[in-house]
Amino acid sequence: MDLTSLEIFRAVAAEQSVTRAAQQLQRVQSNVTTRIQQLEDELGVPLFQRDGKRMALTDKGREFLAYAERLLALAAEARQAMHPDLASGTLRLGSMESTAASRLPAVLARYHRECPAVSLEVSTGTSQALIEGVLSSRLDCALVAHPDALHREDLAGQALERGLCASPVFHEELVMVLPPDHPPAASPGDIRVGTLACFARGCTYRLLAERWLAEHRSEGTPLQVREVGSYHAILACVSAGDSAGIVPRSVLALYRESPALTALAVMPVDTLLVWREGYATAAFERLRESLLAR
Fold first, then answer.
1. Is 180 within 8 Å of 239 (Cβ atoms)?
2. What domains does the chain contain, in order, with CATH numbers?
3. Does the pLDDT of residue 49 top 80, yes or no?
4. Of 72, 77, 257, 285, which one has the fewest beta carbons inside 10 Å?
5. How far apart are alpha carbons 122 and 133 in whole angstroms?
6. Sorted alphabetically, which PROSITE patterns does this protein's record hold (predicted)?
7. By three-state DSSP, how is residue 117 classified?
């Protein structure tokens, strides 16, 4: 078992194809196939189920992938740690959709100018998925909203949970957007639509909105949820007239022509930069400095 074999295994797991993994890694197919077979022989378990050309992880394969991710992340961190004054290598940053759209463009442009040797990989997801990505070493750090951090004032670099450190970097105001023809609303009890347009479970903003609405809805009145994949879709559902939507005000500010919707303030929420305890590379430290100095 060596790092090259782990990288090949991870690529095949991600692509679910030897052919595509070989193309990505710029290796011949036979070499990729041989490496996977050698790894399975060494471990004594099948890592993939072969279905024609499709390669799907077995249960043992999924278990081993978690170890492979951690080993590869630790190796990358070790290489970067040997040059603590040089920001280089790859940094994998996760972000909520709203943060990526409204907060990151200027910050990352400046970061790229200051740290051109860093290959920055940015992906988006719900806060829960991003936190799990950091804990499993699929991500090096992430920008999330965490419900347990709503009332904490001491999070500047402190432990949040399960070996996770956090620092507040952005301050958001969540608003509930209502259809154009909705009667005037001054409080949650005035909301007349029964459907909430939001992201999938794992989204902290959705969780907070559900709690906020549940506290003010009549007992026995169910809240319907319409899961969508973008803020454009949330605003489209609200504009159609049968849904409310939970949105950071900074996202609404991105629209040159603001939708003719009512925005009812819900609560302030901090966006946190989270990382694993002990994780420290020059690339990450420069990013954290850029976020705090925005």
1. yes
2. 3-66 (1.10.10.10), 86-170+272-292 (3.40.190.10), 172-268 (3.40.190.10)
3. yes
4. 257
5. 12
6. HTH_LYSR (PS50931)
7. coil
At residue 217, φ and ψ (nearest 5 deg) are -90, 150
Rounded to 5 degrees, φ, ψ at 195 are -125, 135
Other beta carbons within 10 angstroms of residue 273's beta carbon come to 24
DSSP helix/strand/coil, 232:
helix
What is the pLDDT averaged over residues 209-229?
79
Q: Where are the alpha helices (DSSP H) in the chain?
A: 3-15, 18-25, 29-43, 59-81, 97-102, 104-114, 127-135, 204-214, 231-239, 249-252, 282-292
- How far is residue 120 from each of residues 92, 269, 281, 290, measured CA to CA in Å? 6, 26, 13, 14
| Model confidence pLDDT, tens digit, residues 93-107 | 999 999 999 999 999
With 80 as the cut, is the pLDDT of residue 151 above it? no
Q: Quick one: tokens of 254?
A: 């991105």
Tens of pLDDT along 132-148? 999 988 999 999 998 76
Q: Is 183 exposed, middle or buried (0-12, 13-18, 19+ CB in 10 A)?
A: exposed
Beta carbons of 193 and 242 less than 8 angstroms apart:
yes
- The interaxial angle of helices 104-114 and 282-292, nearest 10 deg, is 130
pLDDT in tens, 56-67: 999 999 999 999
Sign for the pseudo-dihedral over CA of 4, 7, 13, 16: negative
Distance in angstroms (rounded) separating the CA atoms of residues 18 and 207: 39
